[in-house]
Structure formats: structure tokens, C-alpha cells
Amino acid sequence: MILDVKKITKKYNKLVAVNDISLQLEENEILGLLGPNGAGKSTFINMILGLTKVDSGTIEIFEKKLNRIIKKKIGYVPQDIAVCNELNAYDNVMFFGKLYGLRGDKLKESVKKAMEFTGLWERRKESPKKYSGGMKRRLNIACAIVHEPQLLIMDEPTVGVDPQSRNNILETIKKLNESGTTVIYTSHYMEEIEEICTKVAIIDNGELIIEGTSDSIKNEVLTEKLVRLQLEDEIEKSIELINDIEGVISLSISGDTVTIKSKKEIDNLAIIIEKLVKANIKIISINIEQPTLEAAFLSLTGKTLRD
Ligand SMILES: Nc1ncnc2c1ncn2[C@@H]1O[C@H](COP(=O)(O)OP(=O)(O)OP(=O)(O)O)[C@@H](O)[C@H]1O
């Protein structure tokens, strides 16, 4: 077990930023903490890191309370970029390596590895002042991984970055995970979380609403499925035909397209198509909407992530 959080709570005066959250994390997972602005994600990870005091509850990392030895096994990428503009990029990573006790050849090798990992080695001699926002974020990550932490905690590492840097950051996380690093990662970008996380925890208003794999959350929460049929004509007639088919919950029309909402567990698409074909109604296209974490979040909280 890498992380064992039991019933932690944090209040700022009357505001409950984190409310009674328990969460476990096994080795080699990528945990995505997903929630809208102000949900309590940063407060949660700051408590794990010992940066914010816990009001109640307990946290164990590597089966121990946080101490100096444990801290050396953790890497932290803060939400706000924390690099020094007076040093070039290479010296920034060097500085962090030294802070973690690396010296000599080991330090040089580790700095090179971290900068290659984040795609910055070729531009190591430049000042971070000359870097794009995305490159600064990657430098922030290089500083956090130079000591090869077993647990890497990242607070919204892809906020405001260009697509190229975002892909690089996601690839870096995947590669680190493949080489044995456990990762905790906060975001409100649903697609990223779906793409890279082995485990997802949805937080809203300081509470852990649901946790599991992306698929298990979608399966558990979403009880409906949507199919869109684009028809050549006879839309009204198609509604009459489909309305009574088993599993159909509701139908709506937009232009030449009928949207059919059905119960997830009932397989009725073949029957719908058969009925339309028999009635000589031509189907131009069929679109089956894939369930998303965004839809699961909406169903759980009644709001979108960007609300
Ligand atoms: N130091 C503080 N003092 C008072 N209130 C705080 C403090 N830090 C956070 N909060 C409040 O606690 C709540 C949770 O904030 P937190 O930063 O943990 O959310 P978040 O999910 O990380 O949001 P974001 O995605 O915007 O970073 C918010 O209402 C925030 O205003």
C-alpha cells in the first residue's frame, strides 16, 4: 500500500474544504483526483504532503506517518510554477537534485535523465524566462522527478499549456508509471483523467463522491444510453414506431435526427433498426454516444465540471 488516508477533514473557519475523505492507493497506480474549482483537491494533496495540517483523521504513506525519509521518496509538482528565473533550466533541476541529497555523477546523470524525460535537454542552457508556459510546466516536473521519487504528486500540471506540452506531460506521466512510479494527479480535464488514470476519485464540495476505474464509475452511475439516428424523412412516423419498443425512455427530434434514450441494460438497437427498415424509412447514419466521465459527473453532482 502506497497511501492510506482515513477519514481526513480540513476546515477553514466554517468552510469544510475536505470532509471525511478516506482513500487507499496501491503501488504503481495513477490516481486522478477529479473535481471542479474549489472542490478540495489541492487541500487534499497538501494534507498528504504535510503542507496543510489535518484537523482530524490519519494519513499513512508507505505504511508510515510522514517523516523526512518518506518525504525523500515523494515528488511534488505544485499548481503554481516554482522555478528560479535567475538560474538556467539545467541549474534549476541541479538545485532540486541537490536539495534531495544527490551529488557528483549521480546528480549529473539524474538531471540529464529528468530533462530528457520532459523533452528539455536540448534547451537546458536557456533561462526559464525564455520558455513557453508549457515548457515551464515541464521544467517544474523535471525538478520534481530528478530524485526518482516512488510517489509523484501533481497538482493540475496541464493547466494552461499548449497541446504539444500537454501530450509531453501525459507521456511523461505514463513513462514514469511504467518505470514503477505511483502517481497522484489532480485535474478538471476529464479526457486526460480517462486517458491515463488507473483509478479515479471524484471530489465535489470537499467530499469524495465516488472512486473506482473510469469504466466502473461510468457503469455504476450511468443507467441510460443514447443513440442518434439521422433519417432521410418520415421523422414523425419513426417516433410512433420507436416509442413503444422495450427499453426506450424518451425520444427527441432535432432537424433530421432522432435521439433515443434507452435503459442501458436493454439491447434494443437491432429492433429499432428493423422496425424502421420494414416501414421503408431510410437511415442515413447511426451514432451511438459513448458514456463519458463527464456524463457520470453530471449525473452524480447535477453540474458540469466547469460550473
Ligand atoms: N488557505 C486557505 N484559507 C481559506 N480557504 C481556503 C484556503 N485554501 C483553500 N481554501 C478554500 O477551500 C476550498 C477548497 O479549495 P482547494 O484549493 O482545495 O480546491 P481545488 O479543488 O484544488 O480547486 P482548484 O481546482 O481551483 O485548484 C475552496 O473553497 C477554497 O476557497
Automatic annotation (TrEMBL):
<dbReference type="GO" id="GO:0005524">
    <property type="term" value="F:ATP binding"/>
</dbReference>
<keyword id="KW-0547">Nucleotide-binding</keyword>
<dbReference type="InterPro" id="IPR003439">
    <property type="entry name" value="ABC_transporter-like_ATP-bd"/>
</dbReference>
<feature type="domain" description="ABC transporter">
    <location>
        <begin position="3"/>
        <end position="230"/>
    </location>
</feature>
<dbReference type="InterPro" id="IPR003593">
    <property type="entry name" value="AAA+_ATPase"/>
</dbReference>
<protein>
    <submittedName>
        <fullName>ABC-2 type transport system ATP-binding protein</fullName>
    </submittedName>
</protein>
<dbReference type="Pfam" id="PF00005">
    <property type="entry name" value="ABC_tran"/>
</dbReference>
<dbReference type="InterPro" id="IPR027417">
    <property type="entry name" value="P-loop_NTPase"/>
</dbReference>
<dbReference type="GO" id="GO:0016887">
    <property type="term" value="F:ATP hydrolysis activity"/>
</dbReference>
<keyword id="KW-0067">ATP-binding</keyword>
<dbReference type="InterPro" id="IPR017871">
    <property type="entry name" value="ABC_transporter-like_CS"/>
</dbReference>
